[in-house]
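Let's study a protein:

___
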Amino acid sequence: MTSQLRVDHDGAITTVSILTPAMAPAFFTELGEVFGALAKRAELRAVILRADTKTFSYGLDLPAAFAAWGPSLSGSGLAAGRTALWQLIRELQATITAVADCPVPVIAAIHHWCIGGGLDLVTACDLRICTADARFSVREIKVGMVADIGSLQRLPLVIGDAATRELALTGRDIDATRALSLGLVSQVLPDRAALDEAARTLATEIAENPPLVVRGVKRVLDQATRGVVADGLERVATWNAAFLPSEDLGEAAAAFASRRPPVFKGR
């Protein structure tokens, strides 16, 4: 039991439940630790990733992030500040990549909102199913950021380039029906009970197959895109280390705190 995640082992299937609706700094630390430990479980055959909160994920907990990482996010123009920001981004990326690198299939069971960092997380999973009330958004552009922990690298592999550009450049929300049509999810269930049942059925069906073959199938499928994703993650970390600190980022934080629309000026 951790403060951010709960891990339940049931034979060959492990369920990881998110316990907080937004991703505080501790969430990323625990995510990397949990999936690092799961990778070492020889008996593991499938993982279900779900949430025990009112929503799957609102994405990054902005107040907590600015409180913990403020000096790095504000970044001075000197090399030390930019290097610290680059290292922070790479560390956060690694925690999401730990999910993608899990040697067995990971099934994301999504309900209600899946925003920003939440979408980064589910695109690192092998399969995604959701409830009819699910909503998705690449929200980073709305808060003055280039999404930098995986969605811009993995989402095109799931829904294609054109749809990714639409979502990433507008920051708009899409519903479960649109997500299904794009291939972001493979099933839409009526409610959370049905979602959990469908996730368990899917995990059980996978777990009943030859375990080494399942791991081999995942490994082979991932091989074609592993280098592309890794290169993209390093590139966006370098980009944000150079350009993330801005007046617009500060304006986004101030607008969020004041619950008002931001006014971006490109500075």
